[in-house]
Amino acid sequence: MGGRKVVDETTPMFGEALQHDPEFSGPLKNRSCTDIICLLLFIAFLVGWGVVAGFAVYGGDPERLLHPTDSEGRVCGRGEFVNQTFLFFFDLTRCASPKVIATGCPTPQVCVSECPAENWFYTGTGDDTAERSKLICRSNVNPLDTSKTIRSLVENNDCAFYYVESKSFGHRCIPKDINANVDTIIKAITASHSLSSTSGSNTLEVLNKMVDAMKYVVRFARLQQVAEGVFMDIRTGWWVLLSGFVLAMVVSFLWIVLLRFISTFMIWFSIFAFLILSGFGAYYTLNKYLTLRESSNATMSEMSEMEMAFSLEFNHLAELETTWLVFFIITVTVFVICLFIFIFLRKRISIAIALIGEASKAVGSIMSTLFFPVVPYILQLIFLFFFCVVAVLLASAGTTNYRIMCTGTSGCGTCTDYKENDTCSMDTFNPALCPDATCQFYDYVVDPKVPYFHVYNVFGLFWSMFFISAFGEMVLAGAFASWYWVHDKSRVPTFAVTNSVGRTLRYHTGTLAFGSLIIAIVRMIRVILEYIDRKVREKTDSKIVRALLCCCRCCLYCLEKFLKFINRNAYVYCAIYGKNFCVSAKNAFSLIMRNIVRVVVLDQVTDFLLFIGKMVVVGSFGVASFFIFSGEVPGVGPHLPEMNYYLTPVIIITIATFFIASAFFDVYAMAVDTLFLCFLEDCERNDGSEERKYFMSKNLMNILGKKNKDKDKEE
Fold first, then answer.
1. What does DSSP assign to residue 93?
2. Which among 188, 542, 574, 671 has the fewest CB atoms less than 10 Å away?
3. Taking the model in full, what pTM does it have?
4. Are 569 and 477 within 8 A, CB to CB?
């Protein structure tokens, strides 16, 4: 499969083959700045992003997201309520409506220092001090003031007419263990409702309303509860996570070093290890699924409906048989597909392994390339942190908005002065005009520009991330091209990476901005389509519309992958020749299409093998951390910190290992892509004669059936 054969069969559609240039010896030193307009656009965009961040800092209040807000829009746990961090609902049955998630619960809500620890209800009799001391009232109401009777306090919604033993969930007081206190709670709610407009309600109906209300309130606070639990796990187990990160870094580095010296063994080891891991995963998940299915009937009978409805444990996912069935299907599918790939491509794999061996020599000659990816990853973390801060501040920006909420079962009754959902003011609202209505906090009114700022912020994240990724790719491409385009591989420039960084920053930041902008636009369109798809599912169940949206999302995904492939090769071409993005992309694409068979057969198989090696490292850490933190490794549990969710460190360590391993393996992937593109050019520019010697190493010549002609032997 010689290079000349492919060149001779090319069509003008993909351009003429490259001609020999006796003065060409790698990345050109004489070059000029490229795509300056895109660079100026990127700088202007960053300035605009800074303006958005300034607006977010000025108008944002993150504590609104971390703590609940009472009926008057005041944040619990802050200011005058610094010691009152929990939100208490006067009548939780009023929360039994789906609109609670969007509009809030139409019952007075106050900040309290602790949730009720007993069941209490007002029976309509008694007005002593002991009874008053049990009241939970609005902040401006003194329950010990005898000028008002207890009955008037509860009927005017100044104080709650009942409460039940509760516990904190997302800083909201939620009834605790209804099943254990069902009789007491029914009596309390029934007696309390006999004083209100819901008298005559069936006790079972009232209890069902309480259960429904709890569901909606729990859904409202579930995300915050999980977030707080995860945050506590990270804070208490930070040293465990840090140890996992360091160990992942050490293993990834050792893997790459071994790949440098025993590449053939490491690649075949990766293949067999991947098959063993996926096979073991299929066996373990199937066994776990069968075990849980056998015990599911007993578990369901022992677990009450309430416990199933309010399972707040993130760990509960690992106890569902459906979870393990899904994992089994995924692992067995991956195992079968990869097994067939390895069987049918075993000959191509041998050639790809040899190509990886050549890439390992390039990496070994320029060892600084292994540490350079730390720089772009740190930059990406900085931009990610900036995005998160701006997003949180924007989400918390706004002024308090108060609305009329009807407390009666038939709405606001005969009240004509106030209508439900009308805007109101706490200063001017007169409850005497409408006893069945209250004016309470509804939401925060945000500036009309905030949604656009959110879009700007998201697009800024995409553009900056892709820009930094492109920067890393071009720098590595320039360094590895310097290694390839010398006949004597031992005479590689000493500061290959440093020189490449200088060239990239000085001449080609505009090209990086251009390429990353294209990918960012496609990614943003994909996000918009995802948003549209979600809205469509909420409003209609049209299969045709959803199918069309699915096709559009699939096409955009493929387009993004294709553009990333083109961009990557364009960056290689730009690093070598210093041309702008469009010219580099065109030349790289033409070169690839003139050698499309080799690209598909060798380059993509090589990338797949490197991906397999990376997944072996990630999978090993994921499996090990699961067994360690789930308590299946004896003797380790007592030495670990107590976690709310044992899956927290498992997920974090696995995700972090993926990014850490990617930082090392992507260096090899970039080396392979760069050397392969240089090899294709080498085949077109040279023929192995004395005047046109190949730049590729002897091993690479043997792999691909090339050789330099010896002039003395020819004579």
1. G
2. 542
3. 0.71
4. no
